[in-house]
């Protein structure tokens, strides 16, 4: 809801309020971001931190909008042109006081989330240079302390949650890689220094962008906290020609009066309601860990038979089905079935999979090329490179310049053709290398063209599900989530390490998008031995898949797996549609109306640390029946005393299903 005062705008979500006030010099500022207020209460609030800090005047903090005009003058002096309110959307029309430059600040209330973005238009006849164009700045009311929460990591250990005191300085979270990154992720939370999972104030922002990005959090000398974020990293510039505009990506914000858990609930609701559809995520089998590059039609058919018998719903053939791709050195870019491996094309395998009652999917990596490929030999000019500079190879591959429309059109053509000609309902869209040798003008149009291809494919093929992947979780963000159905969370499938990865991923992103496979033991990356049940219980807390070599699983393992897949299907709607509560590091609870699923894991034994796990958000007067044991529990007791955790040894786990009687 939006209410308008005099130079004052109040945006209200069901539980929070956001107030924009024009300062005396017309600078749009944030007067309030926190608990709900009425317009009357908001009228007395003074102007605060700029909504989009610019260069100029006595502002010495981060400038989210930096512009150089043709005469080398920089900065903006604000002039207010007017506003428009349409439903839950507010638009503030602003301009520079002298130069022909318009700046439009957009706001949209979506559930508990406020989306913000900016449009900058060069209305003059001369080009201007943009040195920085952030989506928005956010700022917090004064509190006694501040902590910063975010995730960092690397390939194979993405989404590690960090929580530290926010130091009195500028803290920069960024990716200069052309994708959102394994090492960081474009969101953060700031709390009042005392927040817990259930209590305390948390302010959180997330950028919907899948390329390079930067968010700078500033705790200034007056102990105020503000942050500015947007696409691109430092040092990039681009020209805005006469009459041209640039729209930034959405930078969304959430205020939670109910701790970090409350912030996650709000983000999950936002993504589920506004970004994702609610189709059921199928149980996947993916062949990568079982076969790597050594694949054949017979072997894939045999795997499919085993997978179908387990209850798998979607069979995905990963890398190495195309061109001359027999290792990561060759064939990337040649998107036709390998004639030696699939002499009659993909049809026989797809038919086999379909007859087994599963749908079929394929791995693709459209943005890259191996120098040893037909594509590169035909179009060496399509790769990203700079004159007089070496071409950097990562995983023996170069990047195609998707900022060029002819390259993007080629990619769309073959992808569309692939899906049109075959009965394919799923693509795993991978991207295994960062940008290198990219000029100023590449970074943004590249990502926009990737978005456009995916959007077009989905519009033309409504049955198509897309999984976003970039060597695991290297490109997981709200921008990608808005156009894919799920994420390949990490190449690390070690269940013990997955718990931390999934803990970090699910701070922001709903677990129905969190691809999680059960693979073999010992684990291919870490060598860790874990029971099948533990691996399942970790993967069942997301979007379950199986990625082990089923041809080597014993009859007992296959039987146990079949029962666990069946159990997963019974709780899938609770896990994917319910509220997620993190009960410490090693337990999660999902609650959907009267149904509850609790996963308990014990990756490492801590002798004597068997404290029961207290559940949350139940009806205290309700009685809950354990679906497996028949035992009855009182809601009030489960919340104050908890469920016992009888897991004395390493790699034990449990799943408790409770239903309110
Ligand atoms: C990336 C992905 C893996 C797999 C391989 C195939 O590393 O993250 O899951 O698809 O590529 O080469």
UniProtKB/TrEMBL annotation:
Entry annotated with the keyword Hydrolase: yes
Catalytic reaction annotation: Hydrolysis of terminal, non-reducing alpha-D-galactose residues in alpha-D-galactosides, including galactose oligosaccharides, galactomannans and galactolipids
InterPro entries given in the database record: Aldolase_TIM (IPR013785), Alpga-gal_N_sf (IPR038417), Alpha-glycosidase_related (IPR050985), GH (IPR017853), Glyco_hydro_36 (IPR002252), Glyco_hydro_36_C (IPR031705), Glyco_hydro_36_N (IPR031704), Glyco_hydro_b (IPR013780)
Pfam name, any one: Glyco_hydro_36N
EC number: 3.2.1.22
Claim: Hydrolase is one of the keywords in the record: yes
Residues reported in the UniProt entry to bind substrate: 155, 318-319, 395, 428-432, 469, 491
Keyword entries, A-Z: Glycosidase, Hydrolase
GO BP annotations, alphabetical order: carbohydrate catabolic process
Active site: 430 (nucleophile), 491 (proton donor)
GO molecular function: alpha-galactosidase activity
Domain Glycosyl hydrolase family 36 C-terminal: 593-647
Domain Glycosyl hydrolase family 36 N-terminal: 30-240
PANTHER family the record matches: ALPHA-GALACTOSIDASE C-RELATED, GLYCOSIDASE FAMILY 31
Official protein name in the record: alpha-galactosidase
Organism: Planomonospora venezuelensis
Organism ancestry: Bacteria, Bacillati, Actinomycetota, Actinomycetes, Streptosporangiales
């Amino acid at each position: 809801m939006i209410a308008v005062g005099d130079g004052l705008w109040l945006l209200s979500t069901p539980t929070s309020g956001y107030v924009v006030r024009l300062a005396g010099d017309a600078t749009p500022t944030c007067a309030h971001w926190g608990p709900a207020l009425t317009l009357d209460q908001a009228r007395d609030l003074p102007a605060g931190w700029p909504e989009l800090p610019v260069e100029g005047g006595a502002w010495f903090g981060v400038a989210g909008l930096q512009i150089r005009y043709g005469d080398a003058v920089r900065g903006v002096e604000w002039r207010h042109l007017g506003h428009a309110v349409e439903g839950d959307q507010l638009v503030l029309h602003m301009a520079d006081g002298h130069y022909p430059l318009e700046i439009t600040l957009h706001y949209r209330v979506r559930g508990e989330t406020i989306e913000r973005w900016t449009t900058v238009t060069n209305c003059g006849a001369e080009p201007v240079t943009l040195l920085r164009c952030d989506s928005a700045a956010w700022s917090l009311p004064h509190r006694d302390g501040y902590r910063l929460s975010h995730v960092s990591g690397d390939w194979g250990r993405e989404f590690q949650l960090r929580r530290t005191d926010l130091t009195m300085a500028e803290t920069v979270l960024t990716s200069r890689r052309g994708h959102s990154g394994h090492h960081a992720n474009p969101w953060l939370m700031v709390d009042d220094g005392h927040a817990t999972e259930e209590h305390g104030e948390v302010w959180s922002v997330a950028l919907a962008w899948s390329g390079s990005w930067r968010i700078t959090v500033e705790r200034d000398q007056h102990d105020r906290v503000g942050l500015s974020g947007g696409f691109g990293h430092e040092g990039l510039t681009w020209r805005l020609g006469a009459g041209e505009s640039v729209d930034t990506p959405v930078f969304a914000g959430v205020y939670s009066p109910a701790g970090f858990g409350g912030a996650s609930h709000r983000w999950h609701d936002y993504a589920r309601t506004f970004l994702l559809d609610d189709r059921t995520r199928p149980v996947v089998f993916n062949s990568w860990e079982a076969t790597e590059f050594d694949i054949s039609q017979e072997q894939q058919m045999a795997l499919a038979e085993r997978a179908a018998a387990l209850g798998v719903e979607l069979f995905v053939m990963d890398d190495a089905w195309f061109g001359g791709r027999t290792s990561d050195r060759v064939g990337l870019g040649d998107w036709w079935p390998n004639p030696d491996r699939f002499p009659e094309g993909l049809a026989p395998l797809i038919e086999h999979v379909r007859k087994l009652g599963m749908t079929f999917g394929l791995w693709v990596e459209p943005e890259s090329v191996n120098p040893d490929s037909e594509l590169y030999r035909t179009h060496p000019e399509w790769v990203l490179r700079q004159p007089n500079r070496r071409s950097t190879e990562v995983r023996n591959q170069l990047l195609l310049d998707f900022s060029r429309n002819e390259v993007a059109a080629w990619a769309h053509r073959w992808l569309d053709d692939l899906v049109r000609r075959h009965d394919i309902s799923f693509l795993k869209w991978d991207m295994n290398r960062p940008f290198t040798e990219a000029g100023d003008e590449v970074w943004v149009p590249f990502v926009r063209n990737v978005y456009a291809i995916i959007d077009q494919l989905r519009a033309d093929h409504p049955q198509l599900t897309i999984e976003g992947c970039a060597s695991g979780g290297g490109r997981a963000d709200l921008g990608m989530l808005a156009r894919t159905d799920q994420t390949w969370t990490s190449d690390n499938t070690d269940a013990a390490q997955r718990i931390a990865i999934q803990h970090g991923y699910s701070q922001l992103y709903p677990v129905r998008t969190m691809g999680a496979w059960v693979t073999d033991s010992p684990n291919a990356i870490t060598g860790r031995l874990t029971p099948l049940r533990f691996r399942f219980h970790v993967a069942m807390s997301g979007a379950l898949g199986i990625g082990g070599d089923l041809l080597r699983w014993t009859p007992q393992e296959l039987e146990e797996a079949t029962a666990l897949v069946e159990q997963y299907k019974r709780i899938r709607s609770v896990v994917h549609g319910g509220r997620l509560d993190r009960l410490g590091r090693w337990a999660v609870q999902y609650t959907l109306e009267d149904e509850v699923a609790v996963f308990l894991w014990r990756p490492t034994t801590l002798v004597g640390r068997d404290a029961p796990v207290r559940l949350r958000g139940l009806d205290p007067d309700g009685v809950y029946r354990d679906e497996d044991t028949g035992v009855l529990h009182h809601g009030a007791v489960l919340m104050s005393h908890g469920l016992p955790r009888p897991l004395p040894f390493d790699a034990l786990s449990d799943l408790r299903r409770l239903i309110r009687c």
